[in-house]
Amino acid sequence: MKKNMEKVNDVKRIDIKKAEELLQSGSLENCDDMLDTLLEDVGFAYIESLMLRLYVCMEIYVTAYSFSQKIGVSSEKFYNTFGTADEIGNELMTVEDTVKFLHTLIRECIKWRIESAKGSSSSIVAKAKDYIDKNYMNDELSLIVVADAVGLSPSYLSTQFKKVYGQNLFEYLALSRIAHARELLCCTSKMVYEVAYDVGFKDYRYFSQIFKKYTGQTPRQFQNSANICP
Which residue among 31, 45, 127, 149 is the one 20 to 30 A from 113 at the CA level? Predict the structure, then answer.
């Protein structure tokens, strides 16, 4: 058993980041070649051990499951289509069977993504907007973070967000932060630097620049002139 575990540790890991990118932005036309490249990178065709194939396969399986959840596919639908983690071992008895299973897994997930985007692109973008509204105070929030949260590629989300809301995602995030900053500046006794931190800005000076860009005043000027909550 210990020897088998050492073999698992020696297996080159699948590049999960590339697997995620394949699911998020790969097309049905190129997904087979992209998956083959990922498998070639770990020498999958030369892995004779069933346990080692399962190890590599499960990483892709778990990534696909997580992705499917983000785009609204139920666990029941996913398991009915591919089987649970405990069941798929029966389909991986040979390298050929395993590769076939993985191709089916990736292609079906991409089909779900395409169907979801076509049928409810505005709904997915609305989820992105809702995610921003709930996490605007996170100073690590970015297009990449939001795109990952809703299961889309950053470029596709950026295009769809502007199409639906008429402004890019970065601008919406900035305006959302400024709106909350205005409330805090006029309705609390917090210092300007505290407000900047509370709405997701690490840098006080940058916060002041963005605030003035959208309001015409510095945070201090706005705070001094605000007598009542708007």
Answer: 45
Query: In degrees, to the nearest 5, what angle opens at C-alpha 162 toward C-alphas 230 and 21?
Result: 125
Cα distance between the two ends of the chain? 68
d(Cα 166, Cα 106) in Å, to the nearest integer?
33
| pLDDT, tens digit (0-9, with 9 covering 90-100), for 33-46 | 999 999 998 888 88
Please tell me the CATH code under which domain 170-225 is placed: 1.10.10.60
Q: What is the distance, to the nearest Å, from the Cα of residue 179 to the centroid of all Cα atoms in its chain?
A: 25
Predicted structure pTM score: 0.55
Query: Which tokens in the block code for residue 73?
Result: 């596919």
DSSP state string for the chain: -HHHHHHHHHSPPP-HHHHHHHHHH--TTTHHHHHHHHHHHTTGGG---HHHHHHHHHHHHHHHHHHHHHTT--HHHHHHHH--TTTGGGG-SSHHHHHHHHHHHHHHHHHHHHHHHHHHHHHHHHHHHHHHHHHTT-TT--HHHHHHHHT--HHHHHHHHHHHHSS-HHHHHHHHHHHHHHHHHHHS---HHHHHHHTT-S-HHHHHHHHHHHHSS-HHHHHHH--S--
